[in-house]
Amino acid sequence: MLKVENLSKEFTMHIRGGKKIVTLSDISFQVRKGEFLGITGPSGIGKSSLLKCIYRTYLPSGGNIWYLSGEGEMVNLATVDDHKILELRRSEIGYVAQFLHVIPRVSALEVVSSALITQGVEPKAREERAKELFRRLGIPASLWEMYPSSFSGGEKQRLNIIRGLISKPRLLLLDEPTASLDPVSKREVISLIQELKKEGTTMIGVFHDYETLMKLADTQLDINLKKCKEVCV
Ligand SMILES: Nc1ncnc2c1ncn2[C@@H]1O[C@H](COP(=O)(O)OP(=O)(O)OP(=O)(O)O)[C@@H](O)[C@H]1O
Ligand SMILES: [Mg+2]
After folding, report:
1. How far does the centroid of ligand 1 lie from the alpha carbon of residue 24, in Å?
2. Is the full-model pTM beyond 0.90?
3. For residues 130 and 111, what is the distance between their CA atoms, to the nearest angstrom?
4. Which fold has domain 2-232?
5. How do residues 105-152 score in pLDDT, each as one tens digit?
6. How is the chain split into domains, by residue range?
7. Ligand 1 first shell, C-beta below 6 A
8. Over the stretch 46-67, which tens digit does the pLDDT of each residue have?
């Protein structure tokens, strides 16, 4: 369903005289439909950048990311136009970022339930589904109408996960989804992810926590063996 070929990403640091930072170099792998690929590697090696290239938050510098869409169309996520990317994000590709980027003055309930708008779910049903997940992941009712900017790190992370899972995307990218969770929340997040997997969602997840990785992943990619990690002029 996803085939990454010779992917590379470098950043040009304009404020540093145009120096280039090579973050990903020559990364290739593939993920089959319904499979969970776990990505490991030391901090700073480029795991988040890899997910961001697939979600196209970052424009890759080279290589291809072939994605077979729900409509049977083969799309190169590395080069396709932004319009198509936005369409895929709305309908089938989800992303749980490593950190929640809080939208000011939007309540937790709205942050989560709005992820279902593009799927045409009625407002009442959107709220019900959001509340069901809040209950499951232990977000107290007193917080539902609050702004997430005041939430604790773990509450923000659970909110982030709920927002990513609620629309049941076809391909889900997870960046250290259980990193700052207590054992109970972590167990619940793992079982939610396993349920989604049973329903057919294909996933790519970054983990530092080996135990969680072993529970979820079918296959593993370790990007320790990155060929180039240097600052080039
Ligand atoms: N927008 C950016 N501009 C410049 N450099 C960046 C940018 N994003 C990432 N990098 C650099 O790319 C490298 C990889 O970062 P990335 O966040 O992908 O690492 P990571 O493997 O996810 O690390 P961690 O395990 O700590 O989350 C880092 O050296 C980082 O500074
Ligand atoms: Mg990261």
Report:
1. 10
2. yes
3. 9
4. Rossmann fold (3.40.50)
5. 899 999 999 989 888 889 999 999 999 999 999 999 999 999 999 999
6. 2-232
7. 11, 21, 23, 41, 43-49, 98
8. 999 999 999 999 999 999 999 9
